[in-house]
Design goal:
Elements lengths: L2 E6 L4 E6 L4 H10 L1 H4 L3 E4 L1 H11 L3 E3 L7 H10 L5 E5 L9 H13 L4 E2 L2 H9 L7 E6 L1 H9 L1
Parallel strand pairs: 2-3, 2-5, 3-4, 5-6
Antiparallel strand pairs: 1-7
């Protein structure tokens, strides 16, 4: 498939996700970076979003809980180019029953070439990047072009 360019605006749509053993770490990270995050649109899977919102007063669009379809909802938003960045504090030491959904989320985020942070260190790198508050062009699959070629 050919590629095209997508423009990510300076105000980002950021998804926040955390496995159970990592939720408090993500909440603490959000508290530390509250000022930077407040100027962006934030989305989160259900439980994580409710906890972050309660403890930080950040405005969060909460989706379903991850195991109940929230991971798939986020994947759909990524494929629709409505999520620009994913911060996912995952627990590599504990298996989760919805592991196939988690892998699908990681796959779709990679396919659509959005920045992904998988832990506190990578999240710090992303949020401190000079690109964080800038308009950025990224390379994505040219799915519309693909469909046009297939249908003609």
């Amino acid at each position: 498939m050919k590629n095209t360019t997508r423009q990510i605006s300076a105000v980002k749509n950021i998804a926040l996700v955390a496995h159970d053993h990592c939720k408090q770490d993500l909440i603490n990270w959000c508290k530390t970076n509250r000022t930077l995050l407040a100027s962006h649109y934030l989305y989160a899977t259900g439980t994580t979003g409710e906890m972050i919102s309660k403890e930080t007063a950040l405005k969060i669009t909460a989706l379903l809980s991850g195991p109940m379809g929230g991971d798939q909802q986020l994947g759909g938003l990524i494929a629709e180019k409505q999520i620009d960045m994913l911060i996912f504090f995952w627990d590599p030491m504990n298996a989760v029953p919805h592991d196939p959904d988690v892998k699908a989320l990681m796959r779709i985020a990679t396919v659509w070439n959005i920045p992904i942070a998988m832990n506190e260190a990578s999240a710090n790198f992303l949020i401190s990047s000079s690109l964080f508050d800038q308009t950025v062009n990224i390379r994505i699959p040219d799915y519309a072009g693909y469909l046009k070629e297939r249908l003609t």
